[in-house]
Each structure stands twice: as structure tokens, then as C-alpha cells.
Fold:
Amino acid sequence: MVVVWAMPNLAIHVRQGARGAVHEGALYASDWGFKLGEVTRPVRLWHGEQDINAPVAMGRFQARHLPDCQATFYPADGHISIIVNHAAEILTALSQAERRILEEIV
Structure:
């Protein structure tokens, strides 16, 4: 199902060339201006272990180096299927986190 949806959309994304994808790839390997260990806020990370766009090793590295990271890895999911298969769970967690942040502010 995901492949049927993704293929026509992929063609749209690269219609004007691959410059955007190349730029995004360069960002992964460049200095972000901070170290992951300097992040002071809680981080939720969801990663599909079958992701070929962002290898699971990158997600595991980030999870290890972020001081307050709650990571969830899905063995059977990839880059898009994680959203399709786990949207409700992810959105619920984000909504709960937003509520906690707003409570801290008030």
C-alpha cells in the first residue's frame, strides 16, 4: 500500500531535479551547530528499522547521544510506513507532550 502511494509522489518530488535530496543528504553529514548532548529538552524519537533513507544506525546514534531521549524503533517499518502504521500512537504522544509543555509555561 505504501509503495503504491509513494511512487507517484516520488516522481513529483524529483520532477525538477535531485538538488533538494542532495542538499538534505549533505545536511545529515554537516555540523548542526550543536552537539546532541547539549539538547536540554526531552526528545521523542520514532524510527523504522527498515528505513533506507535514514538508516536505523543513525536513529540509534541519536538516541544514545540525546540526554533525555525516549526512542521507539519499529522492526517492520520504514520511512513512510512508520507514519501510516503508527500515526495514532505518535500523534497521541506528541499531544501529551504538548500538554505537559503548556502546563510548565502556565
